[in-house]
Amino acid sequence: MLQLPLGMTGLKVSAIVLGCLNFESRTDKSTSYRLLDQYQDAGGTSLDTSNNYAFWNEGCQGGESEKLLGQWMKERGNRDRMFVATKVGAKPSFPGGGFENMEGLGHKTIEKAIDESLLRLGTDYIDLYYSHIDDGETPLEETLEVMNRLVRAGKVRALGCSNHRLSRLQEARRISQAHNWAAYSCIQQRYTYIRPNSAADFGVQVSVDEELLSYCQSTQDVSLLAYSPLLNGAYTRSEALLPAQYQGPQTISKLKVLKEVASETEGTVNQIVLAWMLQGAPTAIPLIAASNPGQLQENLGSLNIRLTQDQLERLNA
Prior knowledge:
Distance between the termini: 30 Å
Largest sheet: 8 strands, parallel, barrel
Oligomer: single chain
Number of strands: 10
Strand content: 15-25%
Low-confidence stretches: none
Structural class: alpha/beta
Strand order of the largest sheet: 3-4-5-6-7-8-9-10
Radius of gyration: 19 Å
Helix content: 25-40%
């Protein structure tokens, strides 16, 4: 599988990253292992999880996904061949809590959380460690200083942020550069082909906007990763069933073009969305989720789609 640079770190991630959010919760162990094996057999190396996955699922408290990945890597003996990303900052600060009671990005929280994640993952380092959700109550200097210490200690190889506004990403990078600290090398946001409408509200999640796209296009320092690129299967249903945040005057016309290009390439609508992300400007590396091997195979098939310049222009119109 094609490997793409992660900012200017010298590290590379797979062109399609496997999201592991529901592993060992809604997706049982057997199915999770089968998907991980299938992804690895296809040449994929990049796994995305978090210390809070998936506390909102019945019977879960967070950490289930990390623990399963640790068990799988131990059994397969492949830790050194996998690129593992996990996150901190969005786990409930007490049992039964929700996103309104997040652990935050204070130094004590991060120092505790990294060791817990390392233990669950059965490893002594994390390839990519994300600040999961922006914490406006903790000074950026505090968060970035402890993150830098984790890099210097060898517990973390690279840093990223998720669900941060562009202004906060830029401020964080200025602070890191001023102190000669390790800086955020990527940003992971909600992003898909259909743009959200002006009234869209995603709660604690932050969607890609034009300013961020322009910024990522203008620099090689920060890679863009996209979560929820397929809107949980919404593209395969009627446009009337798209989430309300994506309902707008251009929705029908954009879906029409999407379907036309899918027909022209003999691909599926989902494959065209993923191919458009990877072949667009800026490149957006999609994080895909699958609950069965058929879904994963379809997503991986997007790597075989080559869009023409005309098709890209029509999709972007």
